[in-house]
Design a protein that fits this description.
Elements lengths: L2 H24 L16 E3 L5 E3 L7 E7 L6 H15 L7 E7 L7 H8 L8 E4 L3 H10 L4 E4 L6 E4 L3 E4 L5 E5 L5 H14 L7
Parallel strand pairs: 3-4, 4-5
Antiparallel strand pairs: 1-2, 3-8, 6-7, 8-9
């Protein structure tokens, strides 16, 4: 290979390196600033028929999850275990709440949600929220949650995500709480976040 060709290759390589460096500095390439991907504005209805928004999360450590009252396993199990978490948190439970957002607006009326959340085996400090199909879609999009109706007729089910989110008292995302965690593990994560203060972004 001639010296002229080698020199040309070297010049092109240098030019590419300079352009790449400029692109990274301008943000065209490389990591972009990260923003909170979970959570955001929503408008739903609570079990007293009041219209509420994301401000219901302010001032409390909130475990938010999406489900429905006809759910055969994941939802009642999650709520039952969150009742145990509430006990494990001890005095700090006063700063804690569980929030179920329905993904079944067709069947989960205010009255249905109120009756469901009244189960004595569920957390004492809890909110059940429902809404129109459009409101449900908006909330699910804000929380990056998948759900889909499965089947026809009155006994249809709804496929949905099983994990929960811990939101800090500012109403911002702290961490994901996988369904597989035991109540003790979930309580430990919440306590770890609480130790960081109201602006916690991890647990």
């Amino acid at each position: 290979m001639s010296r002229r060709i080698l020199a040309l290759i070297a010049v092109l390589a240098l030019a590419l390196a300079i352009l790449t460096g400029l692109a990274v500095r301008k943000g065209v390439l490389g990591p972009q600033p990260q923003t909170a991907a979970v959570g955001g504005p929503f408008q739903l209805v609570d079990t007293n028929g009041r219209t509420v928004d994301q401000s219901v999360l302010k001032g409390k450590w909130s475990v938010v999850f999406f489900g429905f009252t006809h759910c055969p396993d994941i939802c009642p199990t999650t709520l039952f275990e969150l009742a145990q978490v509430e006990t494990l948190l001890g005095p700090a439970a006063g700063e804690f709440q569980s929030v179920l957002i329905s993904v079944d607006p067709q069947r989960d009326t205010v009255a249905q949600m109120k009756a469901y959340m009244a189960n004595p085996a569920f957390p004492k400090r809890s909110l059940g929220l429902t809404g129109t199909p459009a409101q449900t879609d908006a909330a699910a999009r804000a929380y990056k949650v998948y759900y889909q109706k499965s089947g026809e007729g009155p006994d249809y089910t709804v496929n949905h995500a099983a994990y929960s989110y811990l939101m800090n008292p500012k109403g911002r995302f702290a961490c994901v709480l996988p369904y597989e965690l035991t109540p003790e593990q979930t309580a430990a994560k919440i306590q770890a976040a609480m130790k960081q203060g109201a602006n916690a972004e991890s647990c």
